[in-house]
Amino acid sequence: MGPTLECVSCGSTFPERTALLHCTKCGDGLQLVLDVRKVSYDSLASAWKGRDRGVWRYRELLPVPYDRTVSLGEGGTALLPVSLLARDAPRTSVFVKNEGQNPTGSFKDRGMTVGVTEAVALGRKRVICASTGNTAASLAAYAARARLECVVLVPAGGVAQGKLAQAYFEGARVVGLRGSFDDAMNVVVDTADRLDAYVLNSINPYRIEGQKTGAFEVFEQLGGKVPEWLVCPVGNGGNLAAYWKGFEELKALGATDRLPRLVGVQAEGAAPIADAILENRKEIRPVEKPETVASAIRIGNPANWRKTVRAIRESAGLALKLPDPVIVDVQKRLAREEGIFVEPASAASVAGALRLAREGTFRPQDTVVCVCTGHGLKDPEAALRERADVATVEPTVKAILAALGGVPR
User: Fold this and answer.
1) How far apart are CA 22 and CA 12, in angstroms?
2) Each residue's pLDDT tens digit, 57-73
3) What angle, rounded to 10 degrees, do the helices at 238-252 and 213-221 form?
4) What local confidence, expressed as pLDDT, does residue 409 receive?
5) How are beta strands 93-98 and 367-372 bridged, if at all?
6) Which of the four CATH numbers 2.10.220.10, 3.40.50.1100, 1.10.645.10, 3.40.1190.20 does domain 107-204 have?
7) pLDDT tens per residue, range 148-180
8) Domain ranges across the chain
9) CA–CA dist 150, 166 (Å, integer)
10) Quick one: fold of 79-105+207-375?
11) Residue 375 · residue 133 · CB < 8 Å
12) pLDDT exceeding 70 applies to what percent of the chain?
């Protein structure tokens, strides 16, 4: 069942154990293709049942050596029912896949455990990425675990402090660049060549392999069912493409006979993929200066746009773009009404589902899964901008009750 490294556009194939990031014939991205025709899903499911939850539960469908895994216990995140859509879609089952429960607080850990394991298998000593924050934090942690040198390139002043602090404390060498994340991506491959470093952005197909396990978990958590809809925030686009790949593999294995419809949600100030879908264009138009409070998806020229656009279209899915105030409002509602504190980019998926519910998109008895990609503490500045001033009073019951406006009834 060995995988084949294949170009997503022209179909050219390459040796599996290679550090290639782009097709040498057409320049497009690469993906790992597993031949599952001789594999029984029943036998896989039987093996999985005896293992702990997490990415490596699905080791047979991951293209790296299991005996050398670099792991921090990633995956196995909760699928939580939420009621935010109950008024607009009363008979629709809505869940949040809470990826903020991963070791560094974001979904990036799923891909990084596989990507860094591959770096070790290749004998690499140094890893590198460009990042809006979550990738930097995750790569730094897994590089530290594997005793690898880590270099991260970030847009100066454009990364949430919670994420930057993680990368620093985990030992990464952080370089701030004058410009955007897209500028960092433009130089990361050439910088890696000079440093003999292994690139671990989502253009690395091994990253996608780890992230696809989110689809396997959703399937198992729903009792062996594929949701009718999967809604995901979109920045660089790799995560939505990874979920699609995971569900496609489940179908190829015979575990299910259908696939979900995908919804990609972007912020209005950084929506090149959504614009291409909404305007029915074949190519994206990069956003020169992307702006949104959702820093994790503040990307104007997404590297994985072709994979993402293809996945949305193949699934008969949808793309949305939402204004920042709508995203922030849903972020607050998730925290106050459901106890789920996510960063703004994560809330975009639930905000998108809420809009679709109000438009009557979902049918009764549909199951909708919203992927929330990162914990709210990843971006504390965004949350604190919304806070009210804290009343400071004397340490007496009378003063406390006065500050609270009296005894609650």
Assistant:
1) 11
2) 999 999 988 888 999 99
3) 60
4) 67
5) parallel
6) 3.40.50.1100
7) 999 999 988 878 788 889 999 999 999 999 988
8) 79-105+207-375, 107-204
9) 13
10) Rossmann fold (3.40.50)
11) no
12) 97
- 389: number of Cβ within 10 Å: 5
CA distance 117 to 148: 11
pLDDT in tens, 121-153: 999 999 999 998 899 999 999 999 999 999 999
The 8-class DSSP code of residue 335 comes to I
Nearest-5° Cα angle at 143, 97 to 65: 75
> Quick one: how far is CA 40 from the chain centroid?
29
Q: What is the DSSP letter of 194?
A: H
Per the CB < 8 A criterion, the answer to whether 167 and 156 are in contact is no
Any idea which residue has 């897994």 for tokens?
Answer: 142
Q: What number of CA atoms fall less than 13 Å from residue 11's CA on the CB side?
A: 0
The pLDDT score that the predictor gives to residue 405 is: 85
Q: What is the mean predicted confidence (pLDDT) over 190-202?
A: 95
Residues 6 or more apart whose CB falls under 8 angstroms from that of 387 comprise none
Q: What pLDDT does residue 388 have?
A: 63
Taking 70 as the threshold, does the pLDDT of residue 383 lie above it? no
pTM for the predicted model, two decimal places: 0.93
**In this model, does residue 384 exceed pLDDT 80?**
no
* Whole-angstrom distance, CA of residue 280 vs CA of residue 131: 29
Average pLDDT over residues 82-94: 93
Contacts 24+ apart (CB under 8 A), 154-160: 154/130, 154/181, 154/184, 155/179, 155/180, 155/181, 155/183, 155/184, 158/132, 158/295, 158/298, 159/131, 159/132, 159/133, 159/295, 160/133, 160/295, 160/343, 160/378, 160/379, 160/380, 160/381, 160/382
Give the whole-angstrom CA distance, residue 266 versus residue 234. 5
Average pLDDT, the chain: 92
pLDDT at residue number 387 = 65
Residue 406 and residue 399: Cα distance in Å, rounded?
A: 10
User: Do 79-105+207-375 and 107-204 agree at the fold level?
Assistant: yes
